[in-house]
Amino acid sequence: MNSVKARPNKKEERREVTTRKILDVAESLFGERGLYGVTLRDVARDADVDTSLVHYYFTDKTALFNAVFARRAQEVNDMRMLSMLKYETEVGRKNMTLEGIIHAWLRPFFEKLAEGGSGWRSYGALVGTANSSPSWGTQKMTETYDQVALHLIGLFRDLMPDAPEEDLFWSYHFLTGATTFSLAQTGRVDALSGGLCSSTDMKAIAARMPPLFAEGIAAMCGQGRRADVSNWGKTARRSSPAQIANRPRAAAKSNDDGAMTSSSAKPARRTVQPKA
């Protein structure tokens, strides 16, 4: 029996091409200017389409922004989760290190930025802008990236079970702050170094951040060193032993469709002795 090859739907092909073009242009503009610095008219002009067509496909600017942000987000989450799980599997939980965990979380996204073309660089800039924009970015980052972030923090917790709980979250705060500033590709280090360094050199950034943050996080969580805050009128809050004992341990598992999710299983733990 001869199979009948379906004829391509020209209308659907045109729609797909146009939609992708609009998303690409919007991604670049949102990454450069943020949510409030872009209009649908700007997108239509740069995409060389009528503004009415942008409205037809995406209704309004918020819908367009959400589509742009979500387009690569799941791929980023999947890459990061799979990379961390692969690291755990290859070395075993008892042999994990902070540097290895951070490298597994950081590397996939930065590889995409280095090798995936201008679209990925624009998306990286968009994520960097979102993470520093409380009025519109915080909620978007929360609903998009919290699951993987909490898994990473859970690995920190498993590796350093005696660390104060708040320091685990501060660790992620400092790490993701440096990460998203790097994603923004501001050119600051280019100017400061007289061209010796480049804010677009993602491979150089990805090679340097894991050892830097591994040492810093180990020192903060393991040694308990703090800046003198006595003149600020308050002292740093510390977790009680009971809080540390009762907090959950993070692990990961695959659901029926292969997506990665977090669970509260208690994997084997290993105490890290940070360098003095």
UniProtKB/TrEMBL annotation:
TM regions (residue ranges): none
Q: Give the matching SUPFAM superfamilies.
A: Homeodomain-like, Tetracyclin repressor-like, C-terminal domain
Q: Where is this region: Disordered?
A: 231-276
Q: Do you know which PROSITE patterns this protein is assigned to?
A: HTH_TETR_2
GO terms (molecular function) for this protein are:
DNA-binding transcription factor activity; transcription cis-regulatory region binding
Listed InterPro entries: Homeodomain-like_sf (IPR009057), HTH-type_TetR-like_transc_reg (IPR050109), HTH_TetR (IPR001647), PsrA_TetR_C (IPR041586), Tet_transcr_reg_TetR-rel_C_sf (IPR036271)
Q: Give start and end residues of each DNA-binding region.
A: 39-58
Keywords, in A-Z order: DNA-binding
Q: Enumerate the spans annotated as HTH tetR-type domain.
A: 16-76
User: What is the recorded name of this protein?
Assistant: Transcriptional regulator, TetR family
**Organism the protein comes from:** Caulobacter sp. (strain K31)
